[in-house]
Amino acid sequence: MLSDLEKIRSIISEEIKRFLNELEAKHPTITNPGTADVLFLLSSQPDKDLKTAAAVSTISEKFSCALVWTESPHEPLSPPLSRLPQLPEPQIPQAQRQILDNLKCIIIFEPTLSLLANVALGTTDDFPSRLTFQFLAYGKPVYAVRGSEQTAPGTSNRQIQVLSRGYERTLEEWGMLWLRPEQLFSTLEVLLEAPAQNQASVSEKTNSQRRLIVTGEDVEEHIRSGQKQWILPPDAIVTAIAREIAERNGFVLKRPND
Fold it and tell me: Could you tell me where the DSSP H helices lie in the chain?
């Protein structure tokens, strides 16, 4: 009887191993972020759009790519995205800095209203939003891509469309660039084939070279100290919350050319 039970356990164990191996094959994990140049951020399956699928296929054939699949890590992706390794969220600051150093750009397919809001408001409590925010803060390329549909997912309501467009404008001011799928490959060719000396890593940049990030707390602190305005560097990133608090309190956020 014991022997039969052991056999059953062995069979179950083998089936579990086989299932996990199949799952890992569908969603390989990248262990060394230094091996990828391009990171795809996904909140939905953009490969349903033929132009996008063709762009991803062409890019992944020529450049080293990885992906972050934000919605359902166990939902199967279809090719060519299913062949790309997934980048896990780093658990230590050094690993996160390595990602910032080595990745050359982020491509966000069909960004959701939630992602746009998190980055624009500075409430970056999830990995994709935080990574996008840090890329923009260090002046590294962030490309947003929308497929054949010109309306962002989940923005059929007119008020939500206006809100989404407001966040998009904010991120465009910070350096996010919107591209069509057919523009992706040529853009990356120019970026990734540029001389290595033109692609300074984050580690090579001092804190003074990092763009100033103005949060709501920063503005409130200036208001409490009795100041009436703040002269910002031209490339400063002002979060939407900071701007709202400043306007509500008559506090002026001013750039040199204003």
Answer: 2-26, 50-62, 93-102, 113-121, 127-137, 158-174, 184-192, 216-224, 240-248
